[in-house]
Amino acid sequence: MTPHYFAYKQKLDWLVYKDLASREKKPELKEVLEKLIDHELEDYKFWRQFIDKEIQIPKWKIYVFRFLRAILGLTFTAKFLEGREEGMIKKYESYLETVEDAKQREEIREIIRHERFHEASFLELIKEEKVEFVSSIVLGMNDGLIELTGALAGFSLALSKPAIVAMAGLITGISAALSMAASAYMATKHEVGSKKPPAKVATYTGISYIIVVAILVTPYFIFSNVFISLTVMLGLVILIIAGMTLYTSVLFRRKFHHQFGQMLLFSLGVALISFTIAYLFQRFSGIGV
């Protein structure tokens, strides 16, 4: 690693945090971001003295993080950045071993302390509603994926016509979403020590479920062949699981592959079982639509 590499990374983070702070409306979050800006600028200035030209950062990279902030929240964006910086700490420590000047070594140690401060202190200060209720969102989406994937797979063989499968899926999905929301409300209301408003928990759970329902039945309204619809639906399941797993793995520092594989196994496993049951029922009963 070279000073140019470190300078580039520090300036990118500085510009990203600066952009996030300029758009942040909550005073407490803005204050935290401004602390980060000071650290990143100070660290960038240290590395800048070792390179000839001013570092240029493409604007699209800033826009990517602005988009992440708008869609996934400040906590996710900050943790994504800090996840990158965990690797940077190791690179700083490796580079430190090659530096002989005592003053420079101390300044690099200070940069490392900054990175550890960000990881240990900054992220704990951020509280967002979408993060506090992420368990409700995940519950709604997980249940929606597993239950509706299985139902649609079974309906696809039993009913044959995509429009009928879509309607059956919508009715089943919306009913299940309302049931899930009601269960979440009652569970939260009777949970000892819970500070979460039951109505919000129910809302997040129910809406997450309904979003999954809407996405998964869409192919059945678009394609006239039920098996093409089923294939596209299963592709959407994989994409949703990947996106949801990426979000939670960044947010809670969990391993992506383990979560992704587990959720994929449940969803596709239930779909396969449902499809098999529908096939056997149709074959031995002689009933079909």
Automatic annotation (TrEMBL):
It is found in: Endomembrane system. InterPro entries: Ccc1_fam, Ferritin-like_SF, Ferritin_CCC1_N. It is a multi-pass membrane protein. It comes from the Bacteria. Keywords: Membrane, Transmembrane, Transmembrane helix. The chain crosses the membrane at residues 163-187, 199-222, 228-252, 264-281. GO terms for cellular component: endomembrane system. GO terms for biological process: intracellular manganese ion homeostasis. The keyword Membrane applies. GO terms for molecular function: manganese ion transmembrane transporter activity. This is Rubrerythrin family protein. It comes from Candidatus Harrisonbacteria bacterium CG10_big_fil_rev_8_21_14_0_10_45_28.
